Amino acid sequence: MSEHELVIRRASVVDGSGAPARVADVAVSAGVITAVDAHVDGRGHREIDAEGLTVTPGFVDIHTHYDGQATWDPVLAPSSIHGVTSVVMGNCGVGFAPAVPTPEQHDWLIGLLEGVEDIPGTALAEGLTWDWETFPDYLDALDRRRFALDVATQVAHAPLRVYVMGERGANPTELPDADELGAMAAHVRAGIEAGALGFTTSRTYVHRTRDGAPLGTRYSTVDELTALAGAMAETGRGVIQLISDAYQSPDAAYATAEMAMMRSLVEATGRPLSMTVQQPEPLPDRWREMVAWVDACVADGLPLRTQVASRPIGVLQGLTASVNPLVLCPSFQELARLPLAEQVAKLRDPDRRARIVAEHDARPVEGMLAELVGGFHKLFPMDDPVDYEPPASASIAARAAAAGRHPVEVVLDLLVERDGNQLLYMPLFNYARGNLDDVREMLLTPNALMGLSDAGAHCGAISDGSMTTTALALWARDRTAGPTLPLELMVHHITQRTAAHVGWHDRGVVAPGMLADLNVIDMAALAAHPPRIVRDLPAGGRRLMQRASGYVHTFKSGVETFAEGEHTGELPGRLVRGPRPAPRSPSAAGR
Ligand SMILES: [Zn+2]
């Protein structure tokens, strides 16, 4: 009889704690790591010779939006393809519970996620099972399901506001009265007691419903937020997550007021708070102010954290994506509904191309739209594997200048490649200086958490669920534009550090007693391939799917879920309710 269910031999173990890599054997039984030693005695029922390969904990992504998808899809790709074994949903104040059980309310919630997170409403309408009303009901619905990875969620402010306040809850100028605030607080508390990991809200102008309305949560007062997060604090657990425009508002006084609000929320509740920090091109140094402010708060004993990314937050453009530089040109618009092959054929016609170039020049627009359709200096073709730190010389603007052509002509040439499937990459945030030097600094700050993947959202424009792969491949191996970062730090960022923030002390480290959530990685082969639009959402809804190479095995609680990038069919993942304590007696666990 075998002494262990699984032994992974001679691997380079990067254990998630930040400690130096070491060659060791890792033994697993009953879903738990039982030994990590230079040599583990006894045979495993399954033995894997991992010489030359790297073993890490399964990755923990605390910023996803799989709230809808999780009710119909057990695999939760692309995260699960990219080594992630635990996800936290319900971020940025949006979600599907609580929900008054009427078609009108369900449709409003679908419009919320369709608008804020670019998840096709038709897919949500067909896919969502709606076998819940309250937040605890929603957790029970998730609890009935099986997944390739563990899922957990948080109480989101926007649906809660509408559930309690009705239509007024969707209006950001309406404040809850005392009864409404009390009712909302009671729902937050019930949600945390049922297993939510935290309370989340949105204060950004970017987030809008399908109809373009701002979210009801946008101007919530510190009193409202303190009452809600305070109800969570009464339970002694839970984190606060929010997105505010502090990182991007040109109004410095507004940004300062937002930071003061966040600080007072933590002072009043004592709960850990994390917020989005990324670098917009017009304000390339605001993030430094926010990092200094967070560090000062931490020095004062307040648990604040920045949520940062391992690469640019990039919008994908193409004929199959939600946007491309031609979308405002009438001679392109008239093709937009045609089958892709016909679009490609017509975009090869010289007369039409000339008209599109002229129309593009004749349409001045402002703001983010101008950036999206005209930011050729930061628009890059996506190669395979994807280079997430492309040099300025690879931009559409540089290619056009070198060839003496109009950038729109270069775009037209590229968009028809791969039968119209070629995607272009526009780093919207974190690329103000044309490289990732500032991101490197962000990743080195002591109070930074890796977040912002938004996995499960932005189905036609952003594919950052693969950021875990970039964290290792680009930072610990590929980077040439500047210094790299230690593999041990990058693994720590996406394992123990994120897990501990949400109170999970049973995962994120390769050590005896911990969950056997493990990746076996061929670091030489690790790569993220270009996303492709696939139409596999309910009702034929489209989403970006991104494959990876180099993940030889992924184990969730000791069960192999992915082998060489393919789902094994196993679904060992479950809803995780609440924080998880550290294993009490690691040496005895699983023996
Ligand atoms: Zn988000």
Describe the structure.
The protein is of the alpha/beta class and 591 residues long. It folds into 3 domains: 4-57 and 511-568, Urease, subunit C, domain 1; 60-312 and 431-501, Metal-dependent hydrolases (TIM Barrel, Alpha-Beta Barrel); 315-427, no CATH class. Helices cover 31% and strands 19% of the residues. The protein is built from 19 helices and 25 strands. Strands 1, 2, 3, 4, 5, 18, 23, 24 and 25 form a 9-stranded mixed β-sheet that branches. A 6-stranded parallel β-sheet has the order 9-10-11-12-13-17. Strands 6-7-8 form a 3-stranded parallel β-sheet. A hairpin with an 8-residue loop joins strand 1 and strand 2. Bound molecules: zinc ion (ZN). Zinc ion binds at residues 63, 65, 91-92, 454.
Arithmetic mean pLDDT: 94
Instruction: Note the overall shape.
Output: globular
Structural class assignment: alpha/beta
Helix content: 25-40%
Measured by DSSP, the beta-strand proportion falls in: 15-25%
Bound molecules: zinc ion
Low-confidence stretches: none
Q: Could you tell me the CATH topology label of the largest domain.
A: TIM Barrel
- In CATH, the architecture of the largest domain is Alpha-Beta Barrel
Cα-atom radius of gyration: 24 Å
**For this structure, what is the CATH class of the largest domain?**
Alpha Beta
Gap between N and C termini, in Å? Answer: 14 Å
* Total individual domains: 3
The CATH superfamily name of the largest domain is: Metal-dependent hydrolases
Output the number of helix runs: 19
The total of beta strands comes to 25
Main sheet summary: 9 strands, mixed
